[in-house]
Amino acid sequence: MGKAKPVTIAGKRFDTQGDAVNFFNNQKKELLPEGMMKEGDLFDALKDLYELYCNNSPGYELNGRLITGFSVEYEKRNVNGGWATHPCYKTHFSNDEVRPFSIKKAVKSLSDNSN
Q1: pLDDT in tens, 50-102
Q2: Residue 60 DSSP one-character state
Q3: Residue 108 domain-assigned?
Q4: CA 101 to CA 60: how far, in whole Å?
Q5: Is residue 105 part of a domain?
Q6: Across residues 9-19, what is the average pLDDT?
Q7: Residues ≥6 apart with Cβ < 8 Å to 32
Q8: In this predicted model, what pLDDT tens digit does every residue of 24-45 receive, in sequence order?
Q9: Mean pLDDT over each residue of the chain, to the nearest integer
Q10: Nearest CA among 80, 84, 89 for reference residue 23
């Protein structure tokens, strides 16, 4: 079994990939702004994560688009026979495109491509 690799997102160091994923997935719905996030610590972390993900994932390049904000929607998912509410993050771009993205895949791409 390999040693856990730390990841850094927006200057915040996480000891493991799981810690980083949990940081995003454990955001309290009640504490998030209504509508699109355009500033703040969570916005900065999401933007850094998404840009790093794009740089590490062929086919996900920004291609001149700018990130204008992020939104999160919560959906119920059946996990091991029980229902849990799960955040679904979406990236908003300067060309009015909106794309969902996987926090777990984005964090994994950072660890896979680190030295």
Answers
A1: 999 888 888 888 989 999 999 998 888 888 899 888 888 999 999 999 998 88
A2: -
A3: yes
A4: 10
A5: yes
A6: 94
A7: 42, 72
A8: 988 887 777 778 999 999 999 9
A9: 87
A10: 89
Rg of the chain's alpha carbons, rounded to an integer?
14
Q: How many CA atoms lie within 13 A of 34 on its CB side?
A: 0
Q: From 113, 5, 6, 13, select the one nearest 60 (Cα to Cα).
A: 113
Overall number of domains in the chain: 1
pLDDT higher than 90, residue 49: yes
Structural domain contains residue 25: yes
**74: domain CATH number?**
3.10.450.40
92 in a domain, yes or no? yes
For residue 4, give every residue at least 6 positions away whose Cβ sits within 8 Å of its Cβ, in sequence order, or none: 15, 16, 17
106 touches 12 (CB < 8 A): no
C-alpha 109/C-alpha 115 separation (Å) is 12
Task: State the pLDDT confidence band at 115, using cuts at 50, 70 and 90.
Answer: very low
The encoded tokens of residue 56 equal 């590490």
